[in-house]
Amino acid sequence: MSDPTLGAGDAPAATSIGQPTGVLAGPSADVPADVPWRVDGLLAPFVAARVLTSADVHVARRVARLCGEDDERVVLAGALTVRALRAGSVCVELATAPSTVVEPADDEAVDEPATGPTDQLAQVLPWPEPTAWVRALRASPAVADGPDGPPDRPLRWTGGLLYLDRYWRDEVSVRAQVTDRLTPVPVDEARLEAAVHRLFPHEDDERQRAAVRAAATSRLTVLTGGPGTGKTTTIARLVAALQDVDGPGLRVALAAPTGKAAARLQESVNDELRALVHDEDRQRTGELRSSTVHRLLGNRPGSTTRFRHDARQRLPHDVVVVDECSMMSLPLMARLLEAVRPGSRVVLVGDPHQLASVEAGAVLGDLVASLPRGVVELTREHRFGAELAGLAHAIRAGNADRAVALLRAGGDVIEWVETAGDVPTAREVATLEADVRSTGRALVTAARAGDVDGALEALGAHRLLLAHRRGPAGVAHWSTVAEDWVAQETGGRSSAPFPPGRPLLVTSNDRATGLYNGDTGVVVATPDGVAVAFGARGASRLVATHRLPPAQSVHAMTVHRGQGSQFARVSVLLPAATSPLLTRELLYTAVTRARQQIRVIGTEAAVRAAVLRRVQRASGLGRPLTSD
Ligand SMILES: Nc1ncnc2c1ncn2[C@@H]1O[C@H](COP(=O)(O)OP(=O)(O)OP(=O)(O)O)[C@@H](O)[C@H]1O
């Protein structure tokens, strides 16, 4: 029988770390996600309106039944909570549910839009009367009422929010760990100041110096900043400073939520460490290794929620630095903080303005919003030109007028193809087509000639990003269009499995080759047949096609997929203004993937909608924390 608490064990996991679709695993695995006719009663219209899937309902019904609950209003609230997890929220705010749940919960739902205008949907659905609904929840045997409610119920009602209990406990855990870490660490101030000024000698580096001071004097520091603001450089130099102030011999762990991000972190931190000016700093820090957070915590076979290192068996490290924390889910952050020794330092690094984890929680953003101190934001862009930085800033600030003005002004760096309708015409995508054709030609020409560096440079020269996977503004459609353009340009489509010049996206992590989900490469001709080139100009490597982990052609990708990568030029093709995927975070992430030039294709309404619509992720963590 299933564990009705959906809590401590690994099964049935309402959702689980590392499995974005895990919400639907376990109890609902036998039920297709989309069979509305199997749901009746109060919940049927919610399924018909695509607010809930029948899998959401099935999980909620099953949990309620195990607790002896048959009130459909409680089942509805439970199903909305399961649905909220699919949409990245850790809980549901019941009072606002009728206006917030009209947003489809995921990409699947929006790729096939609901039949009617979503704002009208909320009004026609049979929402329970709010006061009676809350009363029913608080009295339910399936619901723990308040923070002191029974510990063995699957749902928890607190502060107007309804959680699956395990997520509430994860939030409580993160909150407690963070609060405990707010007490300052005593250090030799003079020594710290000397290290800080030695490592960051320039006047303009004050924010980076502040970050090192914060990391040295507290047990939790959050370091934020957009791309190229010096986060990685700061990580390297703060490790050097800590080795000086508290070392040598401090045990330092570097980690990131994905394999690809971890590999990139290791490479760039070590590059920065090798570039340290002073011999003693280089000697004290040596080479650092980095791993995924899962690996750092010690994966246990068959479990994605429990690790070898936890509150009983903590990590041995004195300093734990985690990069790309915007991609950390709430459960993973809870497990990480529980596993770090209370006296050790934690440094969380990332860009909270980017799209958050596909799993539940936006912990980095919540911490930035709630921490009374210990958050340092780096703002000086070292890699970006002023135009791109200005556009990214306007988007981040939610200034739609400014974003539109900057796009409209255009120039060498910014191009806006302002389309007349939601679906661009052939004329409107003419500059995109020219770009895809010319980079495709360069890619194929270099790849056929066995010019690995040339092919990799062409691979990173331009990337088409989209919000959706399917539909008229989706990756599937535009990949085909782009592939056709390239085929026309390069003598037709090849039937070979690995034609030179084909760009590939690796879709799973693979220890044997050291390739990670999200890595991109290109097929190149070599004297020994074809192989796939990965890396960058001057730092490439070839992988034989028979050793390649699962991969697919990549002529276009979702903005989510593009996270963690940058390209010389980026084209982002926006969906209709009404698409719920069109958010500030999405547009900011897309624009900041570009190093030199950005092209935005879409209507003014779509640009404005994107800048003004923020990703809404319900959680209790964003509320202010105090150190007392
Ligand atoms: N204080 C500094 N003075 C001069 N150059 C710097 C400074 N800090 C960082 N840089 C340089 O700026 C560039 C970007 O820095 P870095 O890679 O650390 O940024 P980042 O925020 O980690 O970027 P991303 O998010 O893209 O990884 C690098 O070339 C780095 O050497």
What do these coordinates show?
The chain has 3 domains: 42-104 and 117-164, RecBCD complex, subunit RecD, N-terminal domain (Arc Repressor Mutant, subunit A); 182-378, P-loop containing nucleotide triphosphate hydrolases (Rossmann fold, 3-Layer(aba) Sandwich); 386-612, Rossmann fold (3-Layer(aba) Sandwich), CATH 3.40.50.300. The strands form 5 sheets. Strands 7-6-10-11-5-12 form a 6-stranded parallel beta sheet, with helices on both faces. Strands 13-22-21-14-20 form a 5-stranded parallel beta sheet, sandwiched between helices. Strands 18-17-16-15-19 form a 5-stranded antiparallel beta sheet. It is an alpha/beta fold. Residues 1-33 and 104-118 have low confidence and may be disordered. The longest helix is centred in the last third of the chain and has 19 residues, at 430-448. The structure holds adenosine-5'-triphosphate. Adenosine-5'-triphosphate is lined by residues 200, 205, 208, 225, 227-233, 268, 382-383. It is an enzyme of class 5 (isomerase).
Q: Brief description of this entry?
A:
The protein is α/β, with parallel strands linked by helices and 628 residues long. The protein contains 24 helices and 22 strands. Helix 23 (584-591) packs across helix 24.
Secondary-structure map with pairings?
Blueprint (H helix, E strand, L loop, with lengths): L43 H5 L5 H13 L5 H15 L4 E3 L3 H4 L6 H5 L6 H7 L5 H10 L3 E3 L9 E4 L2 E4 H16 L8 H11 L6 H12 L2 E6 L5 H16 L5 E5 L2 H16 L4 H7 L4 E3 H5 L1 E2 L2 E5 L11 E4 L7 H10 L5 E6 L12 H8 L4 E4 L7 H11 L3 H10 L4 E5 L11 H19 L3 H8 L2 E5 L8 H15 L13 E4 L13 E7 L2 E8 L2 E6 L6 E3 L3 E2 H4 L4 E7 L10 H8 L2 E9 L1 H9 L16
Helix pairs in contact: 2-3, 8-15, 9-10, 9-11, 10-11, 11-12, 11-13, 17-18, 17-23, 18-24, 19-20, 19-21, 23-24
The site of adenosine-5'-triphosphate has 14 residues, from helix 11.
EC number: 5.6.2.3
GO biological process, one term: double-strand break repair via homologous recombination
Pfam families: AAA_30, RecD_N, UvrD_C_2
